Prior knowledge:
Blueprint: E1 2-6, H1 15-28, E2 33-37, H2 43-47, H3 60-64, H4 70-73, E3 75-78, E4 81-84, H5 93-98, H6 106-111, E5 119-123, H7 130-138, E6 141-147, H8 153-169, E7 174-181, H9 188-201, H10 214-221, H11 226-229, H12 234-249
Parallel strand pairs: 1-5, 1-6, 2-4, 2-5, 6-7
Antiparallel strand pairs: 3-4
Helix pairs in contact: 1-12
The protein binds adenosine-5'-triphosphate and magnesium ion.
Magnesium ion binds near residues 16 and 39.
Amino acid sequence: MRVITICAEKGGVGKSTTSTNLAAGLAEMGKTVILIDLDAQGNAGIALGLMAGGHTGRSTAELLMKEESLQDLLIEVRDNLFIVPGSRRLYGIQKALVEGRAVDRRLQHALKDLVNVDFVIIDSPPANNILHDNAYMCSTEIIVPVETQIFSAKGLKDIKTTIREIREDNPEIDITGILITKYDSQRNQDRAYAEVIREEFGSVVFPTEIPDTVRLSEAQAAGKSIFEYQRWGKAATAYRKMCVEVLERGQ
Ligand SMILES: Nc1ncnc2c1ncn2[C@@H]1O[C@H](COP(=O)(O)OP(=O)(O)OP(=O)(O)O)[C@@H](O)[C@H]1O
Ligand SMILES: [Mg+2]
């Protein structure tokens, strides 16, 4: 079983978009996938048609508080695709967990008895906290989305910092890839920044770039994956290629 956290130093770079479409794409390819949303905004579930907190109102907060088991929290949203949604309760989780034991390993503990699951995909929140620690302790891999619109040396440094800090938490973790998102090949700065990122990180960067297109947010608003929303559009094609690259990188 591969456990992949989608993470980035910056907010709004496409973590949730990548988590949901990667999970949906792998499920369509016949893999059994669990998508875990650690973000109180609940975007991953909403993007697949669940209301915030899911149908049940229960979420990863109950899992981390050990109030519910993973099996009881899983919601099957598509064939082979299960989700544990995020909820607003996650906003208070840092404080609630602080008193408990092994609070950074709660998620790892919850996943340990899973069988017949190919992928766990974890959508991580923007702020760095105990939720991140939980994600990194149980992950075998990370994927780091990066936007190329804002070219800055700080951006590059942020990617390195993200990776270094995660490796401090869990030295075993692999970087499956850096994913260039919101990419517009017509924009000079996008091309220039993508080139810098590829020079700096080499083959760690996924060959496929995710294009900058409003179709992705339209799909989310409709509660559909990009494959359901616009099956043969350029965003679906890019995410499909990226799914194949993720499969290849696991071999
Ligand atoms: N490739 C893309 N092209 C255009 N818009 C995109 C693309 N990917 C994501 N978006 C949009 O950008 C916004 C932020 O994306 P998303 O929610 O995936 O980022 P995030 O990293 O999860 O944000 P947060 O840090 O708030 O969790 C959303 O409105 C989303 O629809
Ligand atoms: Mg998000």
